Amino acid sequence: MKKSIIILMLVASVSGAIFQSCKDIDGEKSELQKPVAESIPVSKEDADVATTINLQAAFKGETTASAKYAAYSKKAEEEGFHEIAMLYHAASTAENIHANNHKAVLKEAGQTVPEIIPEFTVNSTKENLKDAIEGESYESNTMYPEFMVTAKAANNDLAGISLNYAYRTELKHLKMYKGALAALESNNVKSLPTVYFICPTCGNTYQTTAPKRCGISMTSSEKFIKLTSLN
């Protein structure tokens, strides 16, 4: 079955799914709830192939996002928006963790890990925030939900875990970027956080303070990456 047919089936299935985690992306409880989707009328073989393609696409996307957000961070700092630069620095770190997770799953399955040369354009900080919001919206509302449904159909637990980690984190990044854009538009950038904690297991991102354990992967906060500067 061609990938386009599989994707059409996934879209139809996802439209009827119940994503409980979207009810309250502020709370850690919502982050621990996995999306519940209807069964997909595709064979496991088709789902296996699609999952590999999806992981390769996700690896490319996260690798590009990590490089792009690092560049956006530099631009924000140049424009005097240190707080937004720190947000991009944290997001870049998290996206790199997602990329490495996807890469590990592909290697475990003996699949090809694509060579990626990130391509993107750096604009003003305001335009960059709008671009980040668009990208995170697509990943959290469309791409990762569809990819997770496919992985479930393939009974690929490792892929499901890696995709789920990224999905939960992108929901948080989306809210952070929206908050940063609102602060920029209201000339209130200084109110934004400047300290971030990143879970090394799943990329979960916390502002200012962190709990004892990651709300997604249960990793101890002792292992978190603490970011207080751009170095």
Report the radius of gyration as a whole number of Å: 18 Å
Figure out the total of helices: 6
Order of helices and strands: HHHHHHEEE
How many strands, what sense, and barrel or not for the largest sheet? 3 strands, antiparallel
Q: By CATH's scheme, which homologous superfamily of the domain at 43-192 applies?
A: Ferritin, core subunit, four-helix bundle
Q: Output the CATH class name of the domain at 43-192.
A: Mainly Alpha
Q: Which structural class is indicated by helix and strand composition?
A: mainly alpha
Quote the CATH topology of the domain at 43-192: Ferritin
Oligomer: single chain
Helix content: 55-70%
Mean pLDDT across the residues is 86
Q: Which sequence of strands runs across the widest sheet?
A: 2-1-3
Counting DSSP E segments of at least 2 residues, the number of strands comes to 3
* CATH architectural name of the domain at 43-192: Up-down Bundle
Distance between the termini: 48 Å
Low-confidence stretches: 1-39
What best-fitting shape do the alpha-carbon axes yield? globular
